[in-house]
Amino acid sequence: MDLSKLPQLEGWIRVGEEFDPRTFLLSTATVGEAAAMSTLFWPEFTEYRNGVFLRFLFERRGVDSWFDELKGDRRAVEGVVNHVHLWDVFAPNSEAEYAVLAELAQRISAMWRAALKSAFPSREFIVSVVDASEDYGPTISIRSA
Asked: What is the pLDDT along the chain (145 residues), one digit of tens a residue?
């Protein structure tokens, strides 16, 4: 990820040196912000009706409605419920931010794969990233394989 073009990091990245996030984060991020981001980056899950759902998106009544509408197709319900549009979480303001957000989606998807593997070692999942830049921006989703 090329962080050097991000306006927020101007002055924090020295030419020829590796970016060290510690000082930047100490100066700009709170523990609350870091904790909130960690729940997006390494989510917890809820098992329900033989499906696996991102806990922060799970709402029983809504999931039941999707099961009804999709005629009990668990994988389809997981796909509808378990998706996050990064534009709903982060508001990019420049071309550089749009580009980094697309790369960030790939990193988050890798963390979701690892979190799923850790929580459900015997199950297989599909973690997808779609970069619909003209529509909803980078979108990450999960469903059972």
From this structure: 778 888 888 888 877 777 889 988 999 999 999 999 999 999 999 999 999 999 999 999 999 999 999 999 999 999 999 999 999 999 888 888 888 998 999 999 999 999 999 999 999 999 999 987 667 889 999 999 9
Strand order in the sheet with 125-132: 83-85, 137-144, 125-132
Report domain extents, the chain.
3-10+17-43+83-144
Burial 11-31 (b: 16+ CB within 10 A, else e): ebbeeeeeeeeeebeeeeeee
